[in-house]
């Protein structure tokens, strides 16, 4: 057995690599000869691609991740594996911070992974520490997770990610691995440019996930949408047999989260709301109840989910339209991380479309006014939204629409969407919807 295989088993507890690609990436990162760019779907196991090399490396791996909550999950997880990881962030108690800094200042630090947000990278308080580990050659690897946040073409742009280019230029000789789940071509180019990746080894997995069944239901055509949602959830969770797995319903507003959770519970499926209007304590309870299986369904705004790592999500339903096809792909992709058959359903309504369309255009106009620009770039949110609408309103394979949006070939759907399963039903629904709208 090689050191890599042994580490995979004994330190991470995995029998084998998830996929050929995961293994290839791990080996390329360990080699450390070139920068590495990884684009693999949610659930493919990207974290391991830098965590395993970090364990084997001499020195520290610096991990950049966009959210403190996400960082905390990962650090907790690594701690349970007895892998020394911590994070320096604004929420850290002073004493813990002091301990971490002391370790980093010591001759041979014990820490293997140091997680920080991009804000922290640029903060003056962190510079002495960073300079000290760099100048002593202790930095083994720079890992940038959720790297699409660096691109203004992406659906989740964070200006602080742009500071990483400057960081990179201060770390000559330290290899960089950039990881993301969602990167159309132009986002990939932005990432390579912004992070100054030098002819990176690129691992791009197709976005197609054949265990996800996509369909679109026109909500306004339903006699009772709540009963419809309930039936869907029940079936996805395993029908009358002992309930297995869990589900997520995404809503746009706090009110609809409350409403839908209440209705589902009344119809017999335990559901809890999750949104920014709840007290922090209630939000944590909702999440914990769902994570630990006491509640089958969480009804949430999109603030829920980034970094939520639950393997047995059997369905993701969107009660309202998503703001872009890229975000829809990411949100619905939280289903079926264990590879088992799972369901992704959009409850579409032209009313939602018109509302969102209005809001997105207003936001774009506001930005243009502020910057006084008319750049092509400003239109990105509108184009992404139009792709989302086309996904719902056009006849055609849903998987193909997603794949082509990300620049992939048309996949072999083989009945894993409503259109390929039965195009007549989709066509009939569209006709009824158009009759309704012209009435
Ligand atoms: P991503 O960041 O690509 O969305 P994660 O790194 O969060 O994915 O991993 C998703 C899940 O897959 C996690 O629960 C992780 O523990 C699991 N996983 C990763 N690698 C393996 C493996 N080789 N064997 C089994 N499970 C794995
Ligand atoms: Mg990840
Ligand atoms: Zn299809």
Automatic annotation (TrEMBL):
Signal peptide range in chain numbering: none
Coiled-coil zones: none
Positions of the Helicase ATP-binding domain: 27-201
Domain of life: Eukaryota
Locations listed in the record: Nucleus, Nucleoplasm
Residue stretches making up the Helicase C-terminal domain: 224-381
Family: Belongs to the helicase family. RecQ subfamily.
Protein name per the record: ATP-dependent DNA helicase
Organism: Electrophorus electricus
């Amino acid at each position: 057995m090689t050191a890599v295989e042994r580490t995979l088993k004994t330190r991470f507890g995995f029998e084998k690599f998830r996929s050929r690609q995961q293994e290839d990436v791990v080996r390329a990162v360990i080699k450390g000869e070139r920068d590495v760019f990884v684009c693999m779907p949610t659930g493919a196991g990207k974290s391991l691609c830098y965590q395993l090399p970090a364990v084997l490396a001499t020195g520290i791996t610096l991990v950049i991740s966009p959210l403190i909550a996400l960082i905390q999950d990962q650090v907790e997880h690594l701690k349970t594996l007895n892998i020394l990881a911590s994070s320096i962030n604004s929420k850290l108690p002073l004493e813990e911070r002091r301990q971490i800094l002391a370790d980093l200042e010591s001759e041979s630090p014990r820490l293997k992974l140091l997680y920080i947000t991009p804000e922290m990278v640029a903060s003056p308080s962190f510079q002495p520490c960073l300079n000290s580990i760099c100048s002593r050659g202790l930095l083994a690897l720079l890992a940038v997770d959720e790297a699409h946040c660096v691109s203004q073409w992406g659906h989740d742009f964070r200006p602080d990610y742009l500071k990483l280019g400057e960081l990179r230029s201060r770390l000559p000789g330290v290899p960089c691995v950039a990881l993301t789940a969602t990167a159309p071509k132009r986002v990939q180019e932005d990432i390579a440019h912004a992070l100054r990746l030098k002819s990176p080894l690129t691992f791009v997995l197709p976005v197609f996930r054949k265990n996800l069944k996509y369909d679109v239901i026109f909500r306004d055509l339903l006699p009772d949408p709540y009963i419809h949602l309930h039936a869907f959830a029940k079936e996805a969770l395993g029908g009358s047999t002992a309930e297995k797995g869990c589900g997520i319903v995404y809503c746009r507003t706090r009110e609809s989260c409350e409403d839908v959770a209440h209705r589902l519970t009344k119809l017999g499926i335990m559901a809890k709301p999750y949104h920014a209007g709840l007290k922090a304590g209630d939000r944590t309870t909702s999440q914990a109840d769902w994570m630990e299986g006491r509640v089958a369904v969480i009804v949430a705004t999109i603030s829920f989910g980034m970094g939520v790592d639950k393997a047995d999500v059997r369905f993701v339903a969107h009660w309202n339209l998503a703001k872009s096809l890229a975000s829809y792909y990411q949100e619905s992709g939280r289903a079926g991380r264990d590879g088992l058959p799972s369901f992704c359903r959009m409850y579409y309504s032209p009313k939602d479309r018109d509302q969102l369309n209005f809001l997105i255009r207003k936001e774009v106009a506001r930005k243009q006014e502020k910057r006084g620009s008319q750049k092509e770039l400003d239109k990105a949110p509108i184009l992404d939204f139009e792709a989302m609408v086309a996904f719902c309103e056009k006849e055609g394979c849903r998987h193909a629409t997603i794949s082509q949006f990300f620049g992939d070939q048309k996949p072999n759907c083989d009945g894993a969407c409503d259109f390929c399963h039965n195009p007549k039903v989709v066509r009939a629904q569209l006709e009824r919807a158009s009759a309704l709208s012209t009435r």
